[in-house]
Amino acid sequence: MKDRSKKIWESGYVQVFLLAYLTAMLSFAVLLIRGEGIFTLGNDFNEQQIPFHMLVNRALKSGNTGWNWSIDLGSGLVGAFGFYVLGSPFAWISFLFPPESYPYVTAWLYMAKYAAAAACAYGYLKRFTGKRYAALGAMLYAFSGFQSVNLIFHHFHDAVAFFPLMLSGYEDLREGKKGRLAPAVAVNALVNYYFLIQEVIFLILYFLVREGGHLWKKRKLAGSCMVEGFLGIAMGGVLFLPSVLFTLENPRLSNHLPFSDWLYRGNRDYLQVIRTLLFPGELMNAQSCIKEYDWSSWSSYLPMTGLALPLCYILKKKKDWLAVLLAGGIAITAIPALNCVFGLCSDTNYHRWLYMLILLMSLASAKVAEKREEYPIKGICAALALFMLVLTIGSFWWSEHKYQLINQTDVFLTWSAAGIAGMVLTGLITAAVRSRKRYVICMGTGIFAFCIFTTGMTAWLYQRNSGQSPQEYVERLEAFGQLSLPDERYRIAGSDNTL
Protein backbone atom coordinates (compact mmCIF):
# COMPACT_ATOMS: atom_id res chain seq x y z
CA MET A 1 0.00 0.00 0.00
CA LYS A 2 2.85 2.35 0.90
CA ASP A 3 4.64 1.51 -2.34
CA ARG A 4 1.50 2.26 -4.33
CA SER A 5 0.99 5.60 -2.56
CA LYS A 6 4.64 6.48 -3.14
CA LYS A 7 4.32 5.61 -6.83
CA ILE A 8 1.21 7.80 -7.19
CA TRP A 9 2.96 10.69 -5.45
CA GLU A 10 6.11 10.34 -7.55
CA SER A 11 4.07 10.35 -10.76
CA GLY A 12 3.48 14.07 -10.21
CA TYR A 13 -0.28 14.12 -10.76
CA VAL A 14 -1.13 14.88 -7.13
CA GLN A 15 1.39 17.73 -6.90
CA VAL A 16 0.17 19.31 -10.13
CA PHE A 17 -3.48 18.98 -9.06
CA LEU A 18 -2.78 20.56 -5.66
CA LEU A 19 -0.65 23.35 -7.13
CA ALA A 20 -3.35 24.27 -9.64
CA TYR A 21 -6.03 24.11 -6.94
CA LEU A 22 -3.97 26.43 -4.72
CA THR A 23 -3.42 28.80 -7.65
CA ALA A 24 -7.14 28.97 -8.39
CA MET A 25 -7.90 29.42 -4.69
CA LEU A 26 -5.55 32.41 -4.45
CA SER A 27 -7.02 33.80 -7.70
CA PHE A 28 -10.54 33.81 -6.23
CA ALA A 29 -9.56 34.60 -2.62
CA VAL A 30 -10.33 38.32 -2.74
CA LEU A 31 -13.77 37.79 -4.27
CA LEU A 32 -14.61 35.05 -1.77
CA ILE A 33 -13.58 37.18 1.20
CA ARG A 34 -15.52 40.21 -0.06
CA GLY A 35 -18.51 38.01 -0.86
CA GLU A 36 -18.46 36.31 2.55
CA GLY A 37 -18.09 32.92 0.87
CA ILE A 38 -20.48 33.70 -2.01
CA PHE A 39 -18.98 33.55 -5.50
CA THR A 40 -20.57 35.48 -8.35
CA LEU A 41 -19.21 37.04 -11.52
CA GLY A 42 -21.77 38.48 -13.93
CA ASN A 43 -23.70 37.95 -17.13
CA ASP A 44 -24.25 34.27 -17.96
CA PHE A 45 -22.57 33.03 -14.79
CA ASN A 46 -25.09 34.81 -12.58
CA GLU A 47 -28.09 34.57 -14.88
CA GLN A 48 -27.66 31.02 -16.18
CA GLN A 49 -24.93 28.93 -14.57
CA ILE A 50 -26.00 29.35 -10.93
CA PRO A 51 -29.79 29.17 -11.53
CA PHE A 52 -29.42 26.20 -13.89
CA HIS A 53 -27.42 24.17 -11.37
CA MET A 54 -29.93 24.96 -8.65
CA LEU A 55 -32.86 24.01 -10.92
CA VAL A 56 -31.32 20.65 -11.89
CA ASN A 57 -30.45 19.94 -8.26
CA ARG A 58 -34.09 20.45 -7.25
CA ALA A 59 -35.42 18.49 -10.23
CA LEU A 60 -33.27 15.43 -9.55
CA LYS A 61 -34.05 15.37 -5.85
CA SER A 62 -37.78 15.73 -6.48
CA GLY A 63 -37.78 13.03 -9.18
CA ASN A 64 -38.80 15.52 -11.85
CA THR A 65 -36.37 14.16 -14.45
CA GLY A 66 -38.63 14.17 -17.52
CA TRP A 67 -40.57 17.17 -18.74
CA ASN A 68 -39.86 20.19 -16.56
CA TRP A 69 -42.23 23.16 -16.46
CA SER A 70 -39.58 25.37 -14.81
CA ILE A 71 -37.53 25.54 -18.03
CA ASP A 72 -38.88 28.42 -20.12
CA LEU A 73 -42.42 27.36 -21.11
CA GLY A 74 -41.56 23.73 -20.43
CA SER A 75 -38.85 21.45 -21.79
CA GLY A 76 -37.14 18.09 -21.32
CA LEU A 77 -34.56 18.19 -18.55
CA VAL A 78 -31.92 16.05 -20.29
CA GLY A 79 -32.14 17.85 -23.63
CA ALA A 80 -32.08 21.29 -22.06
CA PHE A 81 -29.29 20.72 -19.56
CA GLY A 82 -27.11 18.09 -21.22
CA PHE A 83 -25.08 21.04 -22.51
CA TYR A 84 -24.86 23.08 -19.31
CA VAL A 85 -25.03 20.80 -16.28
CA LEU A 86 -25.77 17.08 -16.48
CA GLY A 87 -22.49 15.94 -18.03
CA SER A 88 -20.28 17.75 -15.55
CA PRO A 89 -18.84 15.58 -12.76
CA PHE A 90 -18.37 18.77 -10.75
CA ALA A 91 -22.09 19.50 -11.00
CA TRP A 92 -22.87 16.08 -9.54
CA ILE A 93 -20.62 16.86 -6.59
CA SER A 94 -22.65 20.03 -6.04
CA PHE A 95 -25.84 17.93 -5.91
CA LEU A 96 -24.60 16.52 -2.59
CA PHE A 97 -25.45 19.95 -1.15
CA PRO A 98 -28.80 21.77 -0.92
CA PRO A 99 -29.69 23.77 -4.07
CA GLU A 100 -29.57 27.05 -2.15
CA SER A 101 -25.93 26.46 -1.22
CA TYR A 102 -24.67 26.52 -4.80
CA PRO A 103 -23.45 30.17 -4.73
CA TYR A 104 -21.28 29.11 -1.78
CA VAL A 105 -20.08 25.83 -3.31
CA THR A 106 -19.40 26.91 -6.87
CA ALA A 107 -16.03 28.60 -6.28
CA TRP A 108 -14.53 25.48 -4.71
CA LEU A 109 -15.77 23.36 -7.60
CA TYR A 110 -14.39 25.92 -10.04
CA MET A 111 -10.99 25.49 -8.40
CA ALA A 112 -11.32 21.73 -8.93
CA LYS A 113 -11.95 22.33 -12.65
CA TYR A 114 -8.69 24.24 -12.93
CA ALA A 115 -6.89 21.51 -11.00
CA ALA A 116 -8.37 18.77 -13.20
CA ALA A 117 -7.34 20.68 -16.34
CA ALA A 118 -3.76 20.92 -15.08
CA ALA A 119 -3.60 17.25 -14.05
CA CYS A 120 -5.02 15.97 -17.35
CA ALA A 121 -2.75 18.27 -19.36
CA TYR A 122 0.21 17.08 -17.31
CA GLY A 123 -0.58 13.49 -18.27
CA TYR A 124 -0.34 14.41 -21.95
CA LEU A 125 2.65 16.74 -21.73
CA LYS A 126 4.93 14.45 -19.74
CA ARG A 127 4.96 12.06 -22.69
CA PHE A 128 7.17 14.55 -24.50
CA THR A 129 9.08 16.38 -21.72
CA GLY A 130 10.42 15.89 -18.21
CA LYS A 131 7.95 16.03 -15.34
CA ARG A 132 8.99 19.48 -14.10
CA TYR A 133 8.59 21.06 -17.52
CA ALA A 134 5.34 19.19 -18.09
CA ALA A 135 4.08 20.74 -14.84
CA LEU A 136 4.99 24.21 -16.14
CA GLY A 137 3.12 23.51 -19.37
CA ALA A 138 0.13 22.17 -17.45
CA MET A 139 -0.15 25.43 -15.51
CA LEU A 140 0.05 27.43 -18.75
CA TYR A 141 -2.80 25.38 -20.18
CA ALA A 142 -5.05 25.41 -17.12
CA PHE A 143 -4.74 29.17 -16.55
CA SER A 144 -4.58 30.38 -20.15
CA GLY A 145 -6.34 33.45 -21.45
CA PHE A 146 -9.07 31.22 -22.87
CA GLN A 147 -9.91 30.07 -19.35
CA SER A 148 -9.95 33.64 -18.04
CA VAL A 149 -12.20 35.18 -20.69
CA ASN A 150 -14.61 32.25 -20.33
CA LEU A 151 -14.96 32.50 -16.56
CA ILE A 152 -18.61 33.48 -17.00
CA PHE A 153 -19.17 30.32 -19.06
CA HIS A 154 -18.85 27.83 -16.23
CA HIS A 155 -19.41 24.74 -18.35
CA PHE A 156 -16.62 25.53 -20.83
CA HIS A 157 -14.05 24.67 -18.17
CA ASP A 158 -15.23 21.06 -18.02
CA ALA A 159 -14.36 20.58 -21.69
CA VAL A 160 -10.96 22.21 -21.17
CA ALA A 161 -10.32 19.96 -18.16
CA PHE A 162 -10.89 16.66 -19.94
CA PHE A 163 -9.82 17.35 -23.53
CA PRO A 164 -6.18 16.31 -22.92
CA LEU A 165 -7.47 12.79 -22.26
CA MET A 166 -8.39 12.58 -25.96
CA LEU A 167 -4.84 13.31 -27.12
CA SER A 168 -3.40 11.03 -24.45
CA GLY A 169 -5.74 8.27 -25.62
CA TYR A 170 -4.62 8.78 -29.21
CA GLU A 171 -0.94 8.68 -28.24
CA ASP A 172 -1.59 5.44 -26.34
CA LEU A 173 -3.28 3.96 -29.39
CA ARG A 174 -0.29 5.05 -31.46
CA GLU A 175 1.90 3.00 -29.13
CA GLY A 176 -0.33 -0.04 -29.49
CA LYS A 177 -2.17 0.44 -26.19
CA LYS A 178 -5.77 -0.10 -27.21
CA GLY A 179 -8.88 0.63 -25.18
CA ARG A 180 -7.87 4.02 -23.78
CA LEU A 181 -9.14 6.38 -26.46
CA ALA A 182 -12.73 5.11 -26.19
CA PRO A 183 -13.19 6.05 -22.49
CA ALA A 184 -11.57 9.43 -23.18
CA VAL A 185 -14.09 10.07 -25.97
CA ALA A 186 -16.91 8.86 -23.71
CA VAL A 187 -15.93 11.30 -20.95
CA ASN A 188 -15.83 14.21 -23.38
CA ALA A 189 -19.12 13.12 -24.99
CA LEU A 190 -20.77 13.15 -21.58
CA VAL A 191 -19.22 16.45 -20.54
CA ASN A 192 -20.33 18.48 -23.56
CA TYR A 193 -21.48 17.37 -27.01
CA TYR A 194 -20.75 20.77 -28.60
CA PHE A 195 -17.10 20.71 -27.63
CA LEU A 196 -16.77 17.02 -28.52
CA ILE A 197 -17.64 17.83 -32.13
CA GLN A 198 -14.87 20.43 -32.23
CA GLU A 199 -12.47 18.03 -30.51
CA VAL A 200 -13.12 15.33 -33.11
CA ILE A 201 -12.37 17.81 -35.90
CA PHE A 202 -9.17 18.81 -34.14
CA LEU A 203 -8.18 15.19 -33.54
CA ILE A 204 -8.55 14.48 -37.27
CA LEU A 205 -6.27 17.44 -38.01
CA TYR A 206 -3.88 16.21 -35.30
CA PHE A 207 -3.78 12.75 -36.87
CA LEU A 208 -3.15 14.05 -40.39
CA VAL A 209 -0.26 16.28 -39.34
CA ARG A 210 1.16 13.93 -36.70
CA GLU A 211 1.44 11.06 -39.15
CA GLY A 212 2.65 13.27 -42.00
CA GLY A 213 3.41 11.40 -45.20
CA HIS A 214 2.78 7.98 -43.68
CA LEU A 215 -1.01 8.03 -43.85
CA TRP A 216 -1.32 4.83 -45.89
CA LYS A 217 0.97 2.98 -43.50
CA LYS A 218 -1.14 4.27 -40.63
CA ARG A 219 -4.47 3.06 -42.06
CA LYS A 220 -4.83 0.48 -39.27
CA LEU A 221 -4.28 3.23 -36.70
CA ALA A 222 -6.93 5.34 -38.43
CA GLY A 223 -9.34 2.41 -38.33
CA SER A 224 -8.66 1.81 -34.64
CA CYS A 225 -9.27 5.50 -33.96
CA MET A 226 -12.63 5.33 -35.70
CA VAL A 227 -13.68 2.18 -33.87
CA GLU A 228 -12.74 3.53 -30.46
CA GLY A 229 -14.24 6.91 -31.33
CA PHE A 230 -17.63 5.43 -32.20
CA LEU A 231 -17.46 3.17 -29.17
CA GLY A 232 -16.75 6.17 -26.96
CA ILE A 233 -19.67 8.12 -28.39
CA ALA A 234 -21.91 5.10 -27.83
CA MET A 235 -20.74 4.92 -24.22
CA GLY A 236 -21.55 8.59 -23.75
CA GLY A 237 -24.74 8.35 -25.80
CA VAL A 238 -27.01 8.56 -22.76
CA LEU A 239 -26.40 12.33 -22.76
CA PHE A 240 -24.81 12.90 -26.15
CA LEU A 241 -27.73 11.71 -28.30
CA PRO A 242 -30.59 13.46 -26.41
CA SER A 243 -28.58 16.68 -26.36
CA VAL A 244 -27.83 16.52 -30.08
CA LEU A 245 -31.45 15.71 -30.96
CA PHE A 246 -32.61 18.60 -28.77
CA THR A 247 -30.17 20.97 -30.49
CA LEU A 248 -31.18 19.87 -33.99
CA GLU A 249 -34.55 21.49 -33.35
CA ASN A 250 -32.85 24.89 -33.11
CA PRO A 251 -33.57 26.90 -36.30
CA ARG A 252 -30.25 28.76 -35.96
CA LEU A 253 -28.39 25.66 -37.14
CA SER A 254 -29.25 26.59 -40.72
CA ASN A 255 -27.39 29.92 -40.40
CA HIS A 256 -23.95 29.65 -42.00
CA LEU A 257 -21.10 32.11 -42.31
CA PRO A 258 -21.78 34.25 -45.42
CA PHE A 259 -19.18 34.32 -48.18
CA SER A 260 -18.55 38.01 -47.56
CA ASP A 261 -17.26 37.19 -44.05
CA TRP A 262 -14.82 34.44 -45.05
CA LEU A 263 -11.92 36.86 -44.61
CA TYR A 264 -11.35 39.72 -42.20
CA ARG A 265 -11.48 43.07 -43.91
CA GLY A 266 -10.92 45.70 -41.23
CA ASN A 267 -7.83 46.75 -39.30
CA ARG A 268 -9.64 46.13 -36.02
CA ASP A 269 -9.99 42.43 -36.80
CA TYR A 270 -6.28 41.96 -37.43
CA LEU A 271 -5.37 44.02 -34.38
CA GLN A 272 -7.66 41.70 -32.44
CA VAL A 273 -5.80 38.66 -33.80
CA ILE A 274 -2.47 40.09 -32.64
CA ARG A 275 -3.72 41.16 -29.24
CA THR A 276 -5.35 37.81 -28.44
CA LEU A 277 -2.02 36.07 -29.09
CA LEU A 278 0.25 38.46 -27.20
CA PHE A 279 -1.70 40.01 -24.34
CA PRO A 280 -3.85 38.66 -21.47
CA GLY A 281 -7.47 37.97 -22.37
CA GLU A 282 -10.11 40.68 -22.24
CA LEU A 283 -13.60 40.56 -20.78
CA MET A 284 -16.04 39.45 -23.43
CA ASN A 285 -18.71 41.91 -22.34
CA ALA A 286 -16.47 44.97 -21.89
CA GLN A 287 -13.17 45.00 -23.75
CA SER A 288 -10.62 47.67 -22.96
CA CYS A 289 -9.64 48.22 -26.59
CA ILE A 290 -10.28 47.55 -30.28
CA LYS A 291 -13.90 46.36 -29.83
CA GLU A 292 -16.45 47.19 -27.16
CA TYR A 293 -17.31 43.51 -26.73
CA ASP A 294 -16.60 40.14 -28.31
CA TRP A 295 -18.43 36.96 -27.32
CA SER A 296 -16.31 34.59 -29.41
CA SER A 297 -14.05 33.45 -26.52
CA TRP A 298 -11.02 34.74 -28.36
CA SER A 299 -7.80 34.48 -26.34
CA SER A 300 -4.81 32.17 -26.49
CA TYR A 301 -2.54 33.96 -24.02
CA LEU A 302 -0.16 31.85 -21.93
CA PRO A 303 0.59 33.32 -18.47
CA MET A 304 3.88 35.26 -18.45
CA THR A 305 5.50 33.48 -21.41
CA GLY A 306 2.84 34.44 -23.95
CA LEU A 307 3.68 33.56 -27.54
CA ALA A 308 7.47 33.66 -27.03
CA LEU A 309 8.22 29.98 -26.46
CA PRO A 310 5.79 28.58 -29.07
CA LEU A 311 7.22 31.06 -31.59
CA CYS A 312 10.75 29.87 -30.75
CA TYR A 313 9.66 26.31 -31.45
CA ILE A 314 8.00 27.22 -34.77
CA LEU A 315 11.08 29.09 -35.99
CA LYS A 316 13.53 26.37 -34.91
CA LYS A 317 11.55 23.24 -35.84
CA LYS A 318 9.85 24.40 -39.02
CA LYS A 319 9.01 20.94 -40.41
CA ASP A 320 8.22 19.23 -37.11
CA TRP A 321 4.61 18.07 -36.72
CA LEU A 322 4.08 20.25 -33.66
CA ALA A 323 5.45 23.35 -35.38
CA VAL A 324 3.20 22.73 -38.38
CA LEU A 325 0.15 22.32 -36.15
CA LEU A 326 1.00 25.49 -34.21
CA ALA A 327 1.60 27.61 -37.30
CA GLY A 328 -1.50 26.21 -38.97
CA GLY A 329 -3.64 26.73 -35.87
CA ILE A 330 -2.56 30.35 -35.52
CA ALA A 331 -3.31 30.93 -39.20
CA ILE A 332 -6.75 29.33 -38.82
CA THR A 333 -7.68 31.77 -36.04
CA ALA A 334 -7.00 34.65 -38.42
CA ILE A 335 -9.12 33.25 -41.29
CA PRO A 336 -12.87 33.08 -40.52
CA ALA A 337 -13.55 30.64 -43.37
CA LEU A 338 -11.26 28.09 -41.69
CA ASN A 339 -12.00 29.02 -38.10
CA CYS A 340 -15.75 28.48 -38.54
CA VAL A 341 -15.19 24.84 -39.55
CA PHE A 342 -14.81 23.97 -35.87
CA GLY A 343 -18.32 25.33 -35.34
CA LEU A 344 -19.66 23.44 -38.39
CA CYS A 345 -19.55 26.68 -40.43
CA SER A 346 -21.93 28.51 -38.09
CA ASP A 347 -22.38 32.22 -38.74
CA THR A 348 -21.25 33.00 -35.17
CA ASN A 349 -17.56 32.35 -36.01
CA TYR A 350 -16.69 31.54 -32.40
CA HIS A 351 -13.11 30.74 -31.35
CA ARG A 352 -14.16 28.20 -28.76
CA TRP A 353 -11.74 25.55 -29.99
CA LEU A 354 -8.67 27.56 -29.01
CA TYR A 355 -8.02 25.59 -25.83
CA MET A 356 -6.92 22.70 -28.06
CA LEU A 357 -4.35 24.90 -29.79
CA ILE A 358 -3.32 26.22 -26.36
CA LEU A 359 -2.53 22.68 -25.20
CA LEU A 360 -0.09 22.36 -28.10
CA MET A 361 1.30 25.83 -27.37
CA SER A 362 1.87 24.67 -23.80
CA LEU A 363 3.63 21.56 -25.08
CA ALA A 364 5.91 23.66 -27.28
CA SER A 365 6.61 25.98 -24.34
CA ALA A 366 7.57 23.05 -22.11
CA LYS A 367 9.86 21.56 -24.79
CA VAL A 368 11.59 24.89 -25.43
CA ALA A 369 12.06 25.55 -21.70
CA GLU A 370 13.55 22.09 -21.23
CA LYS A 371 16.18 22.65 -23.94
CA ARG A 372 16.42 26.43 -23.78
CA GLU A 373 20.03 26.51 -25.00
CA GLU A 374 18.82 25.33 -28.43
CA TYR A 375 16.32 28.16 -28.94
CA PRO A 376 16.62 31.96 -29.40
CA ILE A 377 14.43 32.72 -26.37
CA LYS A 378 16.19 35.95 -25.37
CA GLY A 379 16.02 37.43 -28.86
CA ILE A 380 12.38 36.45 -29.40
CA CYS A 381 11.37 37.86 -25.99
CA ALA A 382 13.18 41.13 -26.69
CA ALA A 383 11.61 41.45 -30.15
CA LEU A 384 8.11 40.66 -28.88
CA ALA A 385 8.44 43.01 -25.88
CA LEU A 386 9.49 45.85 -28.20
CA PHE A 387 6.70 45.07 -30.65
CA MET A 388 4.13 44.96 -27.84
CA LEU A 389 5.40 48.27 -26.45
CA VAL A 390 5.08 49.90 -29.88
CA LEU A 391 1.54 48.49 -30.21
CA THR A 392 0.58 49.87 -26.81
CA ILE A 393 1.95 53.35 -27.47
CA GLY A 394 0.65 53.33 -31.04
CA SER A 395 -2.85 52.51 -29.82
CA PHE A 396 -3.04 55.89 -28.08
CA TRP A 397 -1.92 57.70 -31.23
CA TRP A 398 -4.39 55.68 -33.31
CA SER A 399 -7.24 56.53 -30.94
CA GLU A 400 -6.44 60.23 -31.11
CA HIS A 401 -5.78 60.61 -34.84
CA LYS A 402 -7.73 57.80 -36.55
CA TYR A 403 -10.66 56.24 -34.74
CA GLN A 404 -11.48 55.20 -31.21
CA LEU A 405 -9.37 52.21 -30.22
CA ILE A 406 -9.11 52.39 -26.42
CA ASN A 407 -12.31 52.04 -24.42
CA GLN A 408 -10.96 51.74 -20.86
CA THR A 409 -7.53 53.30 -20.43
CA ASP A 410 -6.79 51.88 -16.97
CA VAL A 411 -7.65 48.30 -17.91
CA PHE A 412 -5.88 48.62 -21.27
CA LEU A 413 -2.67 49.78 -19.59
CA THR A 414 -2.92 47.05 -16.95
CA TRP A 415 -3.20 44.24 -19.48
CA SER A 416 -0.59 45.79 -21.78
CA ALA A 417 1.89 46.22 -18.94
CA ALA A 418 1.27 42.64 -17.79
CA GLY A 419 1.87 41.25 -21.27
CA ILE A 420 5.08 43.23 -21.79
CA ALA A 421 6.34 42.45 -18.27
CA GLY A 422 5.82 38.75 -18.94
CA MET A 423 7.99 38.92 -22.05
CA VAL A 424 10.72 40.81 -20.22
CA LEU A 425 10.68 38.40 -17.27
CA THR A 426 10.81 35.34 -19.52
CA GLY A 427 13.83 36.77 -21.33
CA LEU A 428 15.59 37.88 -18.14
CA ILE A 429 15.11 34.53 -16.39
CA THR A 430 16.45 32.71 -19.44
CA ALA A 431 19.47 35.02 -19.65
CA ALA A 432 20.32 35.25 -15.96
CA VAL A 433 19.64 31.78 -14.55
CA ARG A 434 22.10 29.10 -15.60
CA SER A 435 21.18 26.27 -13.25
CA ARG A 436 18.42 24.02 -14.60
CA LYS A 437 16.87 23.54 -11.18
CA ARG A 438 16.83 27.27 -10.44
CA TYR A 439 15.52 27.98 -13.92
CA VAL A 440 12.51 25.73 -13.34
CA ILE A 441 11.92 27.34 -9.94
CA CYS A 442 12.16 30.89 -11.33
CA MET A 443 9.97 30.14 -14.34
CA GLY A 444 7.49 28.28 -12.16
CA THR A 445 7.30 31.14 -9.66
CA GLY A 446 6.73 33.67 -12.42
CA ILE A 447 4.07 31.57 -14.13
CA PHE A 448 2.42 30.92 -10.75
CA ALA A 449 2.22 34.67 -10.04
CA PHE A 450 0.91 35.50 -13.52
CA CYS A 451 -1.72 32.74 -13.31
CA ILE A 452 -3.04 34.24 -10.07
CA PHE A 453 -2.96 37.79 -11.40
CA THR A 454 -4.58 37.24 -14.81
CA THR A 455 -7.27 34.87 -13.50
CA GLY A 456 -7.98 36.93 -10.39
CA MET A 457 -8.01 40.23 -12.25
CA THR A 458 -10.41 38.94 -14.90
CA ALA A 459 -12.76 37.52 -12.25
CA TRP A 460 -12.68 40.80 -10.33
CA LEU A 461 -13.45 42.84 -13.47
CA TYR A 462 -16.38 40.57 -14.38
CA GLN A 463 -17.85 40.96 -10.91
CA ARG A 464 -17.22 44.72 -10.84
CA ASN A 465 -18.99 45.20 -14.17
CA SER A 466 -22.02 43.22 -13.00
CA GLY A 467 -23.05 46.13 -10.78
CA GLN A 468 -24.27 43.73 -8.11
CA SER A 469 -22.57 42.42 -4.98
CA PRO A 470 -22.64 38.69 -4.18
CA GLN A 471 -24.74 39.42 -1.10
CA GLU A 472 -27.34 41.30 -3.17
CA TYR A 473 -27.44 38.41 -5.63
CA VAL A 474 -28.18 35.85 -2.92
CA GLU A 475 -30.84 38.13 -1.44
CA ARG A 476 -32.62 38.02 -4.80
CA LEU A 477 -32.44 34.22 -4.81
CA GLU A 478 -33.87 34.09 -1.30
CA ALA A 479 -36.65 36.51 -2.25
CA PHE A 480 -37.57 34.30 -5.18
CA GLY A 481 -37.75 31.29 -2.87
CA GLN A 482 -40.47 33.00 -0.86
CA LEU A 483 -42.77 33.42 -3.88
CA SER A 484 -45.51 30.89 -4.53
CA LEU A 485 -47.60 30.11 -7.60
CA PRO A 486 -51.08 28.52 -7.83
CA ASP A 487 -49.70 25.64 -9.96
CA GLU A 488 -46.93 24.80 -12.42
CA ARG A 489 -48.70 26.41 -15.38
CA TYR A 490 -48.00 29.89 -14.00
CA ARG A 491 -44.85 31.89 -14.76
CA ILE A 492 -43.07 34.89 -13.30
CA ALA A 493 -41.90 37.44 -15.87
CA GLY A 494 -38.34 38.61 -15.19
CA SER A 495 -35.40 40.25 -16.89
CA ASP A 496 -33.09 37.26 -16.29
CA ASN A 497 -33.03 33.66 -15.10
CA THR A 498 -32.45 34.55 -11.46
CA LEU A 499 -36.03 35.68 -10.90
UniProtKB/TrEMBL annotation:
Keyword Transport applies: no
Keyword line: Membrane, Transmembrane, Transmembrane helix
Keyword match Transmembrane: yes
Pfam families attached to this UniProt entry: YfhO (PF09586)
InterPro entries (alphabetical): Uncharacterised_YfhO (IPR018580)
This protein's name: YfhO family protein
TM annotation in the entry: 12-33, 77-95, 107-125, 137-156, 191-209, 221-248, 298-315, 322-344, 350-368, 380-399, 411-433, 440-462
